[in-house]
Amino acid sequence: MRLVGSAITIAVLILGFAAIAQQTGPGGTRTPAETPPPPTPGSPPAAGSQPQVDESALRYFASQGDTRRVNAEIARLRALYPNWTPPSDLSQLSAGAAAAPDPIVERLWNLYREDRIAEVRAAIAERQASDPNWKPPEELVTALETVEARRRLINASDTGQWRTVLSVATESPNLLTCMNVDVLWRVAEAFARTDQPTRTRDVYTYILTNCSNPGERLATLQKALTLLPEPQVADLLQFERKTGETPDDFGSIRDELARRRVERASLDSKTIASAEDLAVVERLIRNTNEAGPVLILGWYNFHHGNPARALELFKTAIDRNGGTKAAEGYAMSLRALNRLAEAEAFAYEWRERAPENMKIYLDVATALLSQDPPPRLEPQVVARIVPVVMAQRFSDGAQALGWYAYNTEQIRTARDWFRTALTWKADDEPSAYGLALSTQRLNERAAFNAVVAQWRNRSQRIADLADGVVPATARQPLAPRTLASTPVETAPTLVQPRSTPRPMAVERVEVEQPLPRTEQAVRRRQSEARSALGRSCAMTQNPNRLSGDSALTRGWCLMEINRPLEAVAAFDQAMATGSSRVREEAAYGKSLAYLRKNLTSQAAIAAAEAPQTRARQVELGASILTQRALAAYRDKRYVETLLALSERARLVPEQNDLLLIRGWSYYNLGQYADAEKVFRAVQRTGYSEEASAGLNAIREAVSPVN
Amino acid sequence: MRARLPQSARFLPWLVSALLLWTGSMAASQTLSVQPLRVIGSLPATDWEAYRFRFVEDNGRVVDTANGQISHSEGQGYGLLLALAAADRRSFEQIWNFTFTELLIRDDGLAAWKWDPNGKPRVTDRNNATDGDILIAYALAKAGSAWQEPRYTKAAQNLARAIGKSTFARSGRSLVLLPGAQGFGSGERPDGPVVNLSYWVFEAFPVLAALAPEYEWDRVWRDGVLLLQQATSGRIRLPADWISLENGLQPKPADGFPPEFGYNSLRIPLYLLRAGMTDLEWLRALKQRWSAESEGVAVVNVVTGQVRERLNDRGYGILPAALACALEGTPVPAPLRAFEPGHYYPSTLHLLAKSLLGEKYPQCV
Fold first, then answer.
1. Among candidates A576, A572, A565, which has minimal Cα distance to A598?
2. For residue range A335-377, what is the model confidence (pLDDT) as tens digits?
3. Has residue B26 been placed in a domain?
4. Does B24 fall in a domain?
5. Name one Pfam family in it (chain B) (predicted).
6. Mean pLDDT throughout A17-24?
7. CB contact B89 to A (< 8 Å)
8. Which residues in chain B are contacts of A159 at CB distance < 8 A?
C-alpha cells in the first residue's frame, strides 16, 4: 500500500502537524515548506480568520490592468464571501501591467469562472497546436489542475474509491484548505474507510484549528460523530471557540454524546448513567416531540429497577408514535409491576406488529397462566392465548397451559399440553414432569412408564415419582417452572414423539384447539370422517374390499382414533383403487400417518407416491425433515441434523426451537463460532433462557472457568 | 489444438511475431501480425464535425443517444480515437478532460464504465469495461506520440499497467482478457471465466505492450486469436458475444446472455481489419455470410443459425463493404461512403471503418 502510505505522509505534512509527521517516519519526500500554498500569497499565514478565496482570476485581471473586470470580480467574490476583503497589493499588480491584455487568456479566465473547464483545456490545446511556443499563464494552469483534482476527488468519494481520494489529495495539496472544507471532510472519510481513524481525527483537528466558518465547524463534529469513536469526538470538543465574533456552539454534539451514553446504559443494568447525562436526555424529551429520547429513558428506568417510571415514559413514547418498541416497553413494564392481566390485554393488541411484540405477549400470557395460586381467568382470555401459543409453537406457553389445566383439574387436557410442549422443546423437564404427573393421575401406566424411562436419569423428581416418594394423587401445590427458572442444561438430549393436544375445557367453555400445522388437514378430514362412518372404523376390517373413496374415508377415520398403521393400510387401498384425486389425498394421508409413527423415511416415500400440491409438498417436506433432524439429533448424529435442518430451512423459515437444535448441533460438533451466531440470533428475537444457556456453554467450552 | 509459434526477433516483435495456427477445420496455415495504423489524419474533418456536433457535449462527454443519453468508457474511447483520426486536438483534449475527471476515478486506475446525467452519483456503475479502458489507453498513446504530448503518454501508460494488472487472467493454459476486473473470473461465476471477443481491440495490443511491457500483451493477443478461431469453428461459424471458458478449450455461450452473435461481436471483423489481420480465414466466411445475396449483417443465434434482427443502418452496412474492399479490392458503394450521423453506435462504427478505409484502402473510397 505504497500509495496510501505516502498519502498519509504527505497529507500529514500538508496539514502541518509536526508532531504527527514524526510518527509517520521517513518517506516524505516533500518538505514542510510545501505546506498549504495559500491561494492568496500576501495573506497572513495564520489562515482561519478569513475564508480562503480563489483570487487567481482577480489577480490576473489586475496584472492586465483591466479595471472593469477587476471590479466585476471583486463584486462577485464579495457576494460569495461576505467577510472577504480584496487584497491590498492589486494596485501594484496593475501598475506593472505594461502589455495589452491577451484576449485569448481573458477568454480562458472567463470560461474558467463559468466552470467550463473542459473548454478551457480545449482552447489551450488548440492555441498550442497553432502556436507551439505559446504557454498559458501559470496561475491558470494551477487553477485548472486544482478544479480537476477537486472533481476527481469528489467523484471518487461519491463512488467509494477511497484510495483514489487519498492519492488525488496527495497530488493536489492546493485543495486541502479551509476554502474546500467539503474536500477535507471527504479526505477524512477516506482515511476512516481505509482503517486510519487517527488520520481522520487529524483532519478534523486541522479544520477545527484553522477554519473559521462556524457552520462548517459544527458540521465537522457531526461528521466525526458518524466516523470516529465517541472518546475521540469528545476530545475534539476542546477546540470549541467560546469567544470571538462567531463563537461555536457544540452543545448539540455534547447532547448527542450524552444521549448515546444513556442509550448504552439503558440496555445494561450494570451501567449507571451520570446525573448530568440523564438530565440531558430529560431536556431532550422536554424540548422535542420525538419518541427516541423517551424510549431511551424508558428502557434506562426499566433496566435500573424503576418499572413504574418506565411505564409512564413508555406511555409517553406511545403517544409520540414510538411504535412497537414503545409498546414492547409498556408491556414489559406492566409485567415487571406484576400487573399481568393488564399486560396480557395490552400486549395482545400489539402482538402482530413485530416479533418482539409477539415475544412479550407470549411471555406475559405464560406468566399470567403460571401464577400461584392459579388465577381465575376470564374464558375469553384463555381462549385467545391458546391459538397464539399453537401458531407460534411456544413450548413454555404450552407448558403453562398444561399446569393451568392440571391445577384446574383438567388432567387429560393437561397431559396433552405437556406432550405438545415436549414436541416443541424436547428437553423441557418441567413438561416431562407434568406429563408424568398427569399420566399417573390418569392411571395410564404405559405412558407413565415411558416418561419415567426417558427421564429418570435426568430428573430426580420424576424418578421420585416413579419410586413412589411423592404421591401424585393429591392436588399439587405447584409452583410451575416457568421459563425463568428452567434449569439450564448443557444440551438437550431427548426428543419426544409428537402428540396431539386435545381441546381444553376452561371454565366449562370449550376452547377450539388449533392443531399443529401438519395435522390441520387431518382435523378437517376428521369431521368428514365422523359424519361418514362415525366411529365404525374402530372395528377391525379388511380394507381390501373397500372402494377408493371408502378406503380413503376409513384412513382418515383411523387417523382420528390414532391408529396410524391401520390407516396406512386403508390409504394404500385407496391409492390402489381410487381416482387421481383420491390417490393424492391418500398419499398425503399415508405420509401423515407415518409421520405420526415417526417413520420418517416411509413418510417421505409415501409423499412421493402421488403428485401433491405445492403447499402440501412444503408441509410434508418440512415435517419429514423436522423429524429427521430431531431423530438424528437424538442419536447424536449432529452433521445429519444440520443437513436436515438446512434442507428444511429451504422450505419454511426455521423457528426458534429448531434454531436451538441447530445451535446445539454446532456446539456438539465443536463449531463454537457458528453455534454462537445461532444462539445470538435466537436471543435477538427476544430473551431466551435456552440461548443464554448455549452461550454460557460456549463460553465455558472456549475458556474453561478456573 | 496448439499453436506452434516461431521465436520472435528481439526487435519489432509485433511485426514479426508471426503466428502459425492450425484449427480443426482448417487445413491451411496462416500468418498473422498487427500492421500498425497511423490513425491521425485518416478521417475527413466534415465527417468528424458532424459526429462531434451530434454526440459530443461541450464538457467532453460522448453521449450514447440510443441508450438514455448515458455515457460510457467505450464511447469516450471511441470519441478520443475519432478526434485523433480527424486530427482535432481541441476535441481530443475536451473528451479527455471529461474522461479523466469523471471516469478515471477507480482505486485500481481503470475507468468506471457507466455515467448517467440523471444518476446520483452520476457514475451509476463503478465497474470497469475493459474494452473502454483499452480504447482510451490506445487513443491516448497514439495521441501522445502524434502530438508529442507527455501528459497523454503518461496517462496511457498508467491505464495500460492497470489493464495488465487487473484484467489479464489465466484460463487453463491461455491468458485471456476479462471483460471487467470484477465478476467474470473463474472463481466469480459458475461458468467463469467469461470473455467477450470484441473486447480484444487487436490494433491496441502492440502499442500498449510498448508502454507496459511487464505484462504479456503478446500472449493475450495470440490467445484471443486462437479463441476466436475456436469460437468460429462450429457449424454456424459465428462467436457468441459472451463466451464461457469453463471448459477450457471448448468455448460455449455464457449463462445469462443470449447465445447470439450480436452488437458486440459485429466489431470483431472491423478490429481485425484495422489491425491488418486480414489473413484470418474466418473473415472470408463472414464476408460470404454478410454479402447482399446472403443474409447480410444481422444478430444471429449461434446455436440455431436463426436471424433475430437484420441491421440496415449504414454504420453496419459499411462493415461488409470494408471486408469486400480489404479482401478483394471491391470499391465501397457510393451511398456508404457518405456519413450521416444516426444513432451513436452505428455512427461510431461507420467512422471507424471510414478512418480505416481512408488510411489503408483509399482506392476503395
1. A565
2. 999 899 999 999 999 999 999 999 999 999 999 988 877 778 8
3. no
4. no
5. Glyco_hydro_8
6. 32
7. yes
8. 105, 112, 121, 123, 126
From the candidates B47, B131, B241, B246, which is the catalytic residue? B131
Nearest to A118 among B94, B121, B147 (CB): B94
Amino acid at A34: E
Residue B158, C-beta contacts closer than 8 angstroms, at least 6 positions apart: B109
- Exposure string (b/e) for A233-269, b if CB count within 10 Å is 16 or more? beebeebbeeeeeeebebeebbbbbbbebbbebbeee
User: Is B150 domain-assigned?
Assistant: yes
- The nearest CA of chain A is from the CA of B104 a distance in Å of 8
Chain B: closest CA distance from residue A190 (Å): 12
Within 10 angstroms of residue A26's Cβ, the number of other Cβ atoms is: 6
The total of other beta-carbon atoms located within 10 Å of residue A140's CB is: 19
Across B256-261, average pLDDT:
96
Q: Are A239 and A205 in contact (CB under 8 A)?
A: yes
Does residue A634 sit in helix, strand or coil? helix
* Extended beta strands in A396-510, E state: 505-506, 509-510
Provide the domain limits for residue B153. Answer: 41-364
Partners of A126 on chain B (C-beta within 8 Å) are 89-90, 93
User: DSSP per residue over A413-428, as a string?
Assistant: HHHHHHHHHHHH-TT-
Q: Which domains does chain A have, with CATH numbers?
A: 370-514 (no CATH), 516-612 (no CATH), 627-706 (1.25.40.10)
For chain B, how many structural domains are there in total? 1
- B26: helix, coil or strand? strand
Q: What are phi and psi of B261, to 5 degrees?
A: -85, 100
Q: What is the CATH number of the domain that holds B169?
A: 1.50.10.10
| Residue contact A125–B89, C-beta within 8 A | yes
Are the Cβ atoms of B147 and A129 closer than 8 angstroms?
yes
Q: What is the rounded CA–CA span in Å between residue A505 and residue A513?
A: 10
B135 touches B82 (CB < 8 A): no
| Nearest Cα residue to A476 out of A397, A386, A365, A372 | A372
Contact A433, A439 (CB under 8 A): no
Burial (0-12, 13-18, 19+ Cβ within 10 Å), A597 = middle
Lowest-pLDDT range of A244-253, A443-452, A498-507: A498-507
Please write the tens of the pLDDT for every residue from B189-220. 999 899 999 999 999 999 999 999 999 999 99
Cβ of residue B147 closer than 8 Å to a chain A Cβ: yes
Cα gap B259→B256, rounded to integer Å? 9
Identify all chain A residues contacting B59, using CB atoms and an 8 Å cutoff: 116-119
Q: Which range among A545-549, A676-680, B25-29, B42-46 shows the weakest confidence by mean pLDDT? A: B25-29
Tally helices (H) and strands (E) across chain B. 13, 11
Domain-located, residue B6:
no
For residue B169, the cross-strand partners are: B176
B249: cell is 478449450
8 Å CB contact between B295 and B305? no
